[in-house]
Specification:
This protein has 9 helices and 6 strands, in the order βαβββαααααααββα. By secondary structure, the chain is mainly alpha-helical. Strands 1-4 form a two-stranded parallel ribbon. A two-stranded antiparallel sheet has the order 2-3. The radius of gyration is 17 Å and the shape is globular. Bound molecules: glycine. The site of glycine has 6 residues, from loops.
Length: 257
């Protein structure tokens, strides 16, 4: 019910998510939004549901592609703040892909716990909540620039997460090993980590669309980047712009190879 704060003014609502993406991310935290030609969720408000009711039985009929798309947000929690959860995912990805009920319930519960902790600390996204957008600035540009509907949200986020890890490694903020683990876990979930050969994405497309991101402040792009050991990240506008351009160029160059 994305417009519930406007339609019928603050009507009470419950969230009953039916995809992994909604269960681990969008149903929790009170972001409500509608899309605009300039981008997804450009118009919105914070309005918490009375409760979020998750029944994982409904996932039995979820298409595989949607399942994997949701897993990219599960991976995000491990990368930004929960190293033991990331390690658990490395050991249990096959079970998640096979829809093992115990593993699925654990991954969804742990993701919701992570999200709830972040939202409790920063409901209106003054700071730490922005870290939930790891890979999203690149990912939203890919979703928009490729034509909405080409990529599922989690697929765009997956390529975006690979780009964030690549850029972080270029700046020396993470080591090669963590970059590799990031790529490996996404690939183990059969998620994309590069743009496909027919992608229309160009360097200019990234630069233009990323400049429209909600996290731009005073004309300054701010990104979530990995920094330090597994489970640590930063939300910052203070990064090496050359590393950003090199990363974009590297991913765009890869399209033709
Ligand atoms: N999906 C990110 C957030 O709810 O803040």
């Amino acid at each position: 019910m994305p417009v519930c704060i406007i339609y019928l003014i603050n009507i009470l609502h419950l969230q009953i998510p039916t995809t992994v993406m909604a269960m681990v991310d969008s149903s929790v935290g009170g972001k409500t939004g509608v899309n605009h030609p300039l981008g997804k969720n450009m118009i919105g408000a914070f309005y918490q549901p009375q409760c979020v009711y998750i029944d994982t039985a409904v996932l039995d009929t979820l298409p595989d592609r949607e399942l994997k798309s949701g897993i990219s947000e599960i991976v995000k929690y491990g990368l930004i703040r929960d190293a033991p959860f990331f390690q658990w995912q490395e050991e249990n990805m096959e079970k998640l892909l096979k829809r093992d009920p115990v593993a699925t319930r654990y991954a969804i519960k742990r993701s919701c716990e992570n999200k709830a902790e972040v939202v409790q600390a920063d409901e209106k996204e003054a700071g730490v909540r922005a870290t939930l957008n790891l890979g999203h600035t690149f990912g939203h540009a890919i979703e928009n620039g490729s034509g909405y509907g080409t990529w599922l949200h989690g697929e765009g986020v997956s390529i975006g997460t690979a780009m964030a890890a690549t850029m972080s490694e270029k700046m020396g903020w993470i080591d090669e090993g963590l970059k590799k683990r990031t790529y490996d876990i996404l690939e183990s979930a059969d998620l994309p980590v590069k743009l496909p050969n027919n992608s229309p994405m160009k360097v200019e497309t990234f630069n233009k669309l990323m400049s429209l991101d909600k996290k731009v402040a005073d004309g300054q792009l701010r990104l979530i980047l990995l920094k330090g050991d597994l489970g640590k990240c930063m939300f910052t506008g203070d990064f090496d712009t050359n590393a950003l351009q090199e990363t974009i160029e590297e991913f765009v160059k890869d399209i033709d190879s």
